[in-house]
């Protein structure tokens, strides 16, 4: 099914509002819907936020909103779904597009394994009715209409499950931003020369994949890196927990989407002021790993946010030569370095060959080594 056909179904069913956090399964649809003027599209920074925004829309209009998320984000949404939208509380109708990563029997990445196994049971525990999406437009319209009717008549959330990508990929090619000449991989290559074999905690998605491959390329040990392949938004929290319990300098390599998802950690870092924490935020203004959908970071003024949170030093880097000249030893910590890059990655980018358990064990063994 083409994304335009699906958008037409939404229009015929009178859906006028959609919000959420992207998944690659929905990439063509989200690329198409962003340009539609007959449906309001709000980019949320986490899934619980999306559910709450949708609730506000319903309260203001009485109309049913759409929310989209990957099933990994269902964990972020559970609080809002149970304590806000549930029939036992405010009884809020909405329709959720939920992608099924880690579906049993389908090869996927390790971070999706458990949620993939328990997703259906979890929906049933949450008492949320669900249907499975169809790639046939007529069937999809009937199923979606039924979910909307169920949501409105019983005043509760319903779910449409996308077990795979059903849409023909017509998404637009990401244009290189000439204002930001560096790529994320350029940044990581430069950072590896500056970390001096100190621990690195890297965010989910292509950041950790590129870091792993750069270590391979230069025949470097992987023991210094904790690759947070899942748990989006929690990279800085992991890094803080390490920094407070080691004498080593700890480098956190984060993304704009990850930080925006859990910005409260900035205040926590600023409060506890670890003198060995270096927070690198690689900002490409997008969720590139799921299809380069835009984040809201293009409106963010990072420096006043980080200063107000209690970071001692904040730098904004735009050029590779600026990055290569950095001396982290002279910066007061906790410090943050915000590096603007353009979206994009190599087509042949691989994935870590070590399992998460192997990565964890090697990293923990390294942390016990004397500095």
From TrEMBL:
Any one Gene Ontology BP term: organic phosphonate biosynthetic process
GO molecular function, one term: thiamine pyrophosphate binding
Sequence ranges assigned to domain Thiamine pyrophosphate enzyme TPP-binding in this UniProt record: 217-296
Presence of keyword Lyase: yes
Keywords assigned by UniProt, alphabetized: Decarboxylase, Lyase, Pyruvate, Thiamine pyrophosphate
Domain Thiamine pyrophosphate enzyme N-terminal TPP-binding: 4-115
Keyword Lyase assigned: yes
NCBIfam families: Ppyr-DeCO2ase
Protein name: Phosphonopyruvate decarboxylase
């Amino acid at each position: 099914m083409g994304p335009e056909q699906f958008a037409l179904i939404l229009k015929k069913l009178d859906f006028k509002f959609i919000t959420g956090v992207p998944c690659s399964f929905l990439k063509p649809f989200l690329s198409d819907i962003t340009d539609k003027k007959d449906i309001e599209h709000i980019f949320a920074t986490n899934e619980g936020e999306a559910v709450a925004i949708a609730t506000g829309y319903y309260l203001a209009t009485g109309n049913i909103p759409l929310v989209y998320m990957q099933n990994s984000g269902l964990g972020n949404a559970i609080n809002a779904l149970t304590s806000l939208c549930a029939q036992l509380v405010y009884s809020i109708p909405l329709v959720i597009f939920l992608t099924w990563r880690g579906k049993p029997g389908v090869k996927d990445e390790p971070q999706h394994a458990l949620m993939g196994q328990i997703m259906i049971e979890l929906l049933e525990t949450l008492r949320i009715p669900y249907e499975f999406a169809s790639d046939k437009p007529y069937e999809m319209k009937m199923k979606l209409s039924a979910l909307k009717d169920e949501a409105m008549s019983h005043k509760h959330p319903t779910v449409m499950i996308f077990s795979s990508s059903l849409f023909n990929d017509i998404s637009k090619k990401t244009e290189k931003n000439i204002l930001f000449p560096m790529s994320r991989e350029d940044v990581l290559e430069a950072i590896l020369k500056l970390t001096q074999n100190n621990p690195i905690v890297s965010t989910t998605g292509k950041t950790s994949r590129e870091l792993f491959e750069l270590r391979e390329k230069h025949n470097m040990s992987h023991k210094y890196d904790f690759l947070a392949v899942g748990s989006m938004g929690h990279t800085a929290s992991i890094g803080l927990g390490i920094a407070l319990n080691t004498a080593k300098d700890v480098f956190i390599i984060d993304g704009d989407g990850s930080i925006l998802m859990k910005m409260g950690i900035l205040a926590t870092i600023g409060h506890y002021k670890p003198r060995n924490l270096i927070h690198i935020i690689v900002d490409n203004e997008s969720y590139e790993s799921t299809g380069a959908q835009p984040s809201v970071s293009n409106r963010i003024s990072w420096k006043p946010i980080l200063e107000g949170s209690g970071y001692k030093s904040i730098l904004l880097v735009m050029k590779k030569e600026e990055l290569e000249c950095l001396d982290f030893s002279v910066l007061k910590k906790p410090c943050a370095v915000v590096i603007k890059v353009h979206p994009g990655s190599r087509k042949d980018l691989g994935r870590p060959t070590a399992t998460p358990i192997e990565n964890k064990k090697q990293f923990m063994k390294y942390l016990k080594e004397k500095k």
